[in-house]
Amino acid sequence: MNKIDNLIIDIDKVICSNIDKFDVSERGLLSQNILSQLRNFVDHIFFKIYSNGQDIENNYENIKKAEAFVKTRGNLKFLTKFHKLLQITASHYTLDEENSERMMLKYYEYLIKIKSFLK
Predict the structure, then answer these.
(1) pTM, two decimal places
(2) What is the enclosing helix (H) or strand (E) of 62?
(3) Residue 114 to residue 119: CA distance in whole angstroms
């Protein structure tokens, strides 16, 4: 397994551990935790697609190239759209618990699509 796969798996573990702790009383907090991981998750999926199975250097320049590459692929429009939504909502600030819950419900569809795509 290459480095990028390991990074994606590490982020996935963090997301899954928050899901495993699911409790109605903590739903907002857990949603905040997951949202904070999603941007990196999608960035690294872009990187995986761009690297085409190669073990290339994981740096900002290559991630930007990966983002540009994925944007040219019509079959990956859902990833580009999700990334754009994450840039708006999860990049530079933390939403309150209630809004985080709402965002997670909105993003659930994208996570299912990502899961299917990666399989």
Answers:
(1) 0.86
(2) helix 60-71
(3) 9
Tokens found for residue 10 = 């590490």
Distance CA 44, CA 31 (A): 20
pLDDT digits (tens, 9 = 90+) for 81-119: 999 988 877 666 677 888 888 888 889 899 999 999 988
* Unique residue bearing structure tokens 């990502």: 114
Burial class (CB in 10 A: 0-12, 13-18, 19+), 24: exposed
Domain that holds residue 49: 3-118
Tokens of 94: 């933390």
Long-range Cβ contacts of 50-58 (<8 Å, 24+ apart): 51/2, 51/4, 53/2, 54/2, 55/2, 55/3, 55/4, 58/3, 58/4, 58/7
Q: How many domains would you assign to the chain?
A: 1
Which residue type is seen at 57? E
